[in-house]
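Notes to self after the Tuesday call (sharing in case useful).
The group wants a holo model before anyone commits to mutagenesis around the pocket. I volunteered. Ligand is nicotinamide-adenine-dinucleotide. Logging inputs and output together so the record is complete.
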Amino acid sequence: MQNIDEKQLREIVHRVVKDLDANAVSCNSTNHYGVFDSMDEAINASEKAQRTYMLCSMADREKYINALRETILDPANMEKMSRDAVAETGMGKYEYKLIKNRLAATKSPGPESLATEAFSGDGGLTLVEYCPFGVIGAITPATNPTETIICNSIGMLSGGNSVIFSPHPRAKKLSAWFVTILNQALVAAGAPDNLIATVREPSVETTNEMMSHPKVRMLVATGGPGIVKLVMSSGKKAIGAGAGNPPVVVDKTADIKKAAIDIVNGCAFDNNLPCIAEKEVVAVDSIADCLIQHMQENGAYLIKDATQIQALWDLVSNEKGGPAVNFVGKSATYILEKAGISIAASAQEPKVIIMETNADHPFVREEMMMPILPIVRARDVDTAIDLALEFENGNRHTAIMHSTDVDKLTKMAKLLQTTIFVKNAPSYAGIGVGGEGHATFTIAGPTGEGLTCAKSFCRMRRCVMSEALHIR
Ligand code: NAD
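Result:
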């Protein structure tokens, strides 16, 4: 028989113990792993879990967050969550979901980001610390179902909170499975069960129950204007991460080919589902033709015919003048096919559909969340910036500019006041894909937290020791 050294022996023991732990978890019939039939049960279990969690050490908190990251990044789980998101919601693309889920798991800051502030002097020592709210109610969108659960769970638990998710009903099966595996990982790491909870059948009623429940101390809504308004008028501490309609300005000083490639890639990302994704282009007249040509050479399908543009609008819009649900997050190929527009078999598969429109076209004014990108000409860069301000519609969400004119870049950033302003890159650089900074899928423009992270989900508390403990 082959001899084994001490290191190998340790590894074997570690693996056996881990398996035993996993079995113990799956055999424990008292665990709910976060999924409940009623909202009231979910909230009560969440409150109980948070009370225990508050007493855990910071080292434990780190360990639990690491367990979450490991479980999310497990290749089989990553594959399932990314495939099932597309299958259940009918939106987006598997390859992009993989990128987004991985991004949220790796670049959402953990407890290490909660630095304590201290004041010391003759009066003693005062600490100001990031502390939990308690139970947080988080409402998540159909467009980024698991991505939002990932960054919210990591941020909220890092801050010492527990969280109840009210997912979009279109992603309820996936969300329940995901909450279950996250709790299994937490419990296996030694955390209380139900730190992350949800209901099996989410609905407007269960969300309302969550929002008005006295045990829920903070609300976080990631979604359209309706739900953001609801949480902001709840009377509770609320974070609202709402809709965007990100404009892209391209001026004559830009690297036009790079701008074209970046815009196509940003717009096509997850079939344009992200709230940060390019939704309309304002191009300075002198470079517009060149930009369009480069876009065509890099994955854009140009529609020129006015009747075809109108027919496309009729196809993909609803009676209220917004996006038809069955076209949101669909690919350019799918949309063209449904519009009866055939592409030459030899042509490269289009990533986005582009067309020139006037400034008032609904494709420009509405947040469509599909890879259809209207292009509006402006006579000069100042006019382009003014138009972008109008198109952004006061959401103060995201804007992009391709230019090397520092003064105009500064002007646009100041004027639009968006939470994210991306210069010379695809929009997704703003959430950490090819750009610096942490990632999140809850970008809180209306309530001002910006790109949310553990700090956003904490209360600042002061702890004072009078006259002692300063050592200078
Ligand atoms: P949505 O507004 O339809 O739904 C979002 C969530 O709110 C869902 O869970 C839904 O069930 C719930 N909800 C909506 N209206 C409700 C009501 N009246 N009562 C109770 N619950 C209600 O949005 P969606 O289609 O899931 O997501 C797309 C929207 O979200 C877009 O507008 C997009 O820009 C925005 N979004 C914003 C961010 C951000 O970080 N700012 C991130 C992702 C999505």
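Two things stood out.
Residues 247-435 form a domain with the Aldehyde Dehydrogenase; Chain A, domain 2 fold (CATH 3.40.309.10).
Residues 68 and 74 are 10 Å apart (CA to CA).
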